[in-house]
Amino acid sequence: KSVGDIKWNDPLIYEMFQKADTLCIPEFETDFIRDMLIKTKPQNFNDLVKISGLCHGTNVWTDNGEFLIKKGVSLSAIPTLRDDIMNDLISVGANREDAFKISEAVRKGLFAREKANDEIINLFKELTKPLGNWYFDYCSKIRYMFPKAHAAAYVINAVRLAWFKKYYPKDFYEAYLSSYLSNPYNLNPEEKEKYDLIKKLLDNV
Q: Do 148 and 81 form a contact (C-beta atoms < 8 A)?
């Protein structure tokens, strides 16, 4: 089997992310993002791209997007990447120049740092009315946003590895140990704990 055999809409793969079964999956195995996965329950590839934006941005999740999820705002509605804001604004009638200018201002944290001028603040407030009362407040807290292309590249790699982990766990864990934890005698305590856990998982495959 090869990566060409992967079905990108395989529900069993996304179930792994929903349950935060992401040990050894780069970008998705820290406690921070595993907690995020549990709370957002990603359903598809696009959701994972959104989540990549949440975890790589600054003030995008903590004390911000996390609250919206708790309030019932859908992950798909929340702009987590700089491209999302531009596309959302265009969808409600903004011209491309204004949409790009505003998305750049949010990406750079100009609203959060109170460096945006009154003209762009008023324009953004007016344009976001159809998107929800929360939209402007959420964006005004953001200090940095991740680009969608980078997020998509990370997710492509993560889904590929999750597929191998799901259907070929023995090969997956053996490859991981040989590649990343090849010398168990020079590991720090956290790496040693991970090594022992993977060895245990291998014994049960």
A: yes
